[in-house]
C-alpha cells in the first residue's frame, strides 16, 4: 500500500509543508527511516534527526521550528505521537484485514458464523462451533466441538482450542497457543502408577484478552479455568487447571501458575515467575521476574521478589548482604579470634 | 448427549429416589451445578449443598440421610465418588470417541493401520507409518517417516513427531508437543562458529505415558531418548537428547532436563526445575519447584530444593536466615563495636 | 537404504577386512549396535567392544591392532571419527532430501520459488512469499505475506512465520517455533486497562542460524528483532521485540530475553536464564543456567551466575556460605553470649 503526503495530511487533518505528491509505503523510527518511509518526531530529543533523515514524510508537532533546510515533507498536527499511533493502528488493521473462507478448510454444517468472517486454509472447525462477526481464524487453527469465538477476535496460525472452550470478543490468540488441554491431574495408585483424573471442565476467556505464542492454558477438572477481561499474557506461559486470572492483570513470558490459584486484578507479574497451586494473589500485586510464590498474598499492592518470594525492599537488602557473605563470614571469624583471646587473657589472669 | 435418571441408575446399579425421567446433559461441582446437570456428594462437608443445589440429579452414598425436602433426583450407590469418577471417564470416552479418516488428510500407501483408527483432516502421515488399533490422530498432526504409534494412543491437534520415533500404547500426546526434534549439539570451530552434530537417534515413548501441550522431547544423537512406562509430563517441558526418564516419574510444567541425564523411577519433580546434563537422579527423588540440579542424586528418596539444590530441610533453614541477613549483619556490627571497646579498654589499662 | 561394506569402503577410501558383501541399514553406538548396523571405534577406551559387538560393519583407525577373532567386517581409515561423522551427515542428508510440491498446499500465484524446493502438504504460503533454492517447507508450515526464506533453509512441521519476516540461508527452524508474533507492548490507560501498541516491525534471521522447537521470537515494535549469523537457539526460548542476538552466540533451552536487550557475539548462555529489557551483554559473556540478568554486562569474557547474577567465582563462595548459614548464625549467637559475659564481668568489677 502506498499513501501520498496529501492523503495522510487529509486523514490526520494536518498542515502540509513540502511536496504533496511524495509517497510512502512503510513506517520506521526517525533514526532508521529511508526514502519512501514515513516517520514522526514527538520528543524534542529527536529533533536533530530532522536535518539528516531520509524519511520522505514526517509527522511533527504544529509548534516545531525548522532552522535549516530539510529533505522531508512535513505534516504538522496538534499531537504528533497520537497521530502517528493512529496511523500505526490503521496500517495494522489494513494489512491484517482478511475475510472470506479459504479452501481447503474443514467446516461442518453445524458451524454458525457471523458476518465478515475469515477462515484460512487448513483451519479445522469442530461440530457446533460458533464464530461471531469479524472473527479471523488463520490457517491451521484447530477449534474443537462446541467452541465459541465472539466478535472481532483473531486466532493466529496454529492456535489449538479444545472442545467446549469459550473465547470472548476482541481477543487475540497468538500462533501455537493451546487453550483447553487437559489439566495435569493424576491419582497415585498402590502400585506406584498414576490414574488419570478426567478433565471435563473448560477454559473461558473474557473480552479484550491477548495471549502470546505457544502459551498453554489447561481446562478445568470441573468448572472453568478463567482468564478475565483485559488480561494480557505473554509467550510460553503455563496456566494450570482451575486457575482464575483477574481483570487487567499482565504476565510476562515463561511464567507458570499452578492449579486452582486465583490471581487478583491489576497485578503486574514478571517473566519466569512460578506460583504453587491453591493460593490467592491480592489485587495490584507486583511480582518481580524469576520469583517463586509459595504462599498467598493477602495485602493488595504488595511488591515481591525472590524464590521463595517476599517483600521487595527487604529482599533486596538480603541480596546485597548475600553478595558479601564471604566478608561477613570473615568478620565473624575475626571476632571469634579476638573474643577467644580476651577469654584466654581473663582465664590466664 | 442426554441421560435420564433411570438410565444412570441402571448404569451404576444404584437406587433411584425422585423423578426417573429427569434428564442431564452436563456435569458440574455441587456448588456450581444448575438445572440439567449431574453432580455428586461424597464428602460430608458438602452435604449442606444438597438442600440448595439446582442439580437435576445427584449421586450420593447409600447411607446419606435427608432431613429436609430437596429438588434433585437422587441415585444412591455404595461409593458416590467412585461411581462419579466412572461416569466422568465414560463421559470423556464417549465425547472423545472419534473414528474414521477425515479428508483431506495425507496418507501414503505404505502406511499400515489397525482397526477403529481416527485420522483428522490435515493430518500428515509419512512413509511406512504404523498406527495400532483405536489410535486417534487429531487434525493437523504430523508424523514423520517410519513413526510407530501403538494401540489406544491419542495424539491431539498439532502434535509433531519426527522420523523414526516410537509411541507406545495408551499414550496421550497433547496439542503442539514436539517429539524427536534435533538434539542441541554443536561442535565449536576454530573461527568461533559452530558445526552441527547430526542427530540420528530417535525418541522412544513407552506405554501409559502422558505428555503435555507444547512440551518438546529431542531425539538422541545416537540411540534413543527414552520416556518409560507411566511417566507423566506436564506442559512446556524441555527434555534434551539422550535423556532417560524412569517408570512412573511425574514432572510439572516448564521443567528442563539437559542432555544424557538419567532420571530414576517414581520421582516427583516440580515445575520450572532445571537439571544439567550427564547426571543421574536416584529413584523416588522429590525435587521442589524452581530448583536447579547440578550434581547427581545418589541416595533414593531424597527431597531437595534450591538453586543449586540440596537437602530440603537444611535449605529451608538457610532460607529463613537469608530473610534475616540484614539483622544478622547488624548483630555482627554490634559485636564488633563491643569487642573493639573491650580491646581498647584492655590496651588503655 | 542399505549399503554394502564394499560401497562404504569405496566412499571413505578405506581398506576393507572381512566380507565385502555384508550390508548395513542403520547406525548405532558400538555398545548398542546389532546385526545390520554400522558403528565405529575412535577412542581406545571402546576397543574392548570390538570382540563382543554384533555390528556388521565397523569403521576403525588404520593403526588398530586386532588380537582375537571378531565378527564384524572392518573398514580401516586414517581418522575413524571424521569418517564416521561424514557418513552421519550424508545419512542425514539422504534421509531428509525431500523435494517437490505436495498437495494440498496453499500457494498463491504471487509466490516465487527457486530450484529444488520442497513444500509439504498443508503448508500455507502468503502473498509474495519468496523461497530460495533447495528450501524445504515441511507439512503444516505457515508463512505470512512477504516472508522471504533464503537458499538451503529448512522449516520443520508447524513452524509459523508472520508477515514480512526474513529468514537467511542454511537456517533450520524446528517444529512449532513461532517467528514474528506481536511484541508484548501495551500502554496503561487511566481506567487500569491496557491499550495495545501496534507491532509493525519484523524479525530478521541471518544465515546459519538454528532455532529450536516451540521457541518464540517476537517481531519488533518498529524496525527489526535480529538474530545474527551462526546463532543457535535451543527449544522453548522466548526472544522479545527488538532484541538483537550477536553472531555465533548459543543459548540453551527455556531462556527468556526481554525487549530491546542486545546480546553480543560468541556468548554462551545456559538454560532457564532470564534477562530484563534494554540491557547490553558484552561479547563472549558466559551465563550459568537459571541466572537472572538485571544489569548490562560491559566487560567481555565475564562469567556470571545467580539471580540476580554476578561474578561466577564470588557467587559460588556466597552460595557455599549460604548452605552453612545456620552454622554462621549459631557462631554469632555464641559470640554474643561470650561478649555479654565479658561485658557483665567488666561491669561487675
TrEMBL record, chains A, B, C:
GO molecular function, a single term: UDP-3-O-[(3R)-3-hydroxyacyl]-glucosamine N-acyltransferase activity
Pathway assigned in UniProt: Bacterial outer membrane biogenesis; LPS lipid A biosynthesis
Domain of life: Bacteria
UDP-3-O-[3-hydroxymyristoyl] glucosamine N-acyltransferase non-repeat region domain ranges (all copies): 21-89
Catalytic reactions on record: a UDP-3-O-[(3R)-3-hydroxyacyl]-alpha-D-glucosamine + a (3R)-hydroxyacyl-[ACP] = a UDP-2-N,3-O-bis[(3R)-3-hydroxyacyl]-alpha-D-glucosamine + holo-[ACP] + H(+)
Record has 4Fe-4S as a keyword: no
Cross-referenced CDD domains: LbH_LpxD
Entry EC number(s): 2.3.1.191
Residue ranges the record marks as coiled coil: 318-345
Keyword field: Acyltransferase, Coiled coil, Lipid A biosynthesis, Lipid biosynthesis, Lipid metabolism, Repeat, Transferase
Active site: 241
HAMAP family referenced in this protein's UniProt entry, alphabetically: LpxD
Summary of the function given for this chain in its UniProt record: Catalyzes the N-acylation of UDP-3-O-acylglucosamine using 3-hydroxyacyl-ACP as the acyl donor. Is involved in the biosynthesis of lipid A, a phosphorylated glycolipid that anchors the lipopolysaccharide to the outer membrane of the cell.
Quaternary structure and partners: Homotrimer.
Family per record: Belongs to the transferase hexapeptide repeat family. LpxD subfamily.
Name this protein carries in UniProt: UDP-3-O-acylglucosamine N-acyltransferase
Organism: Chitinophaga hostae
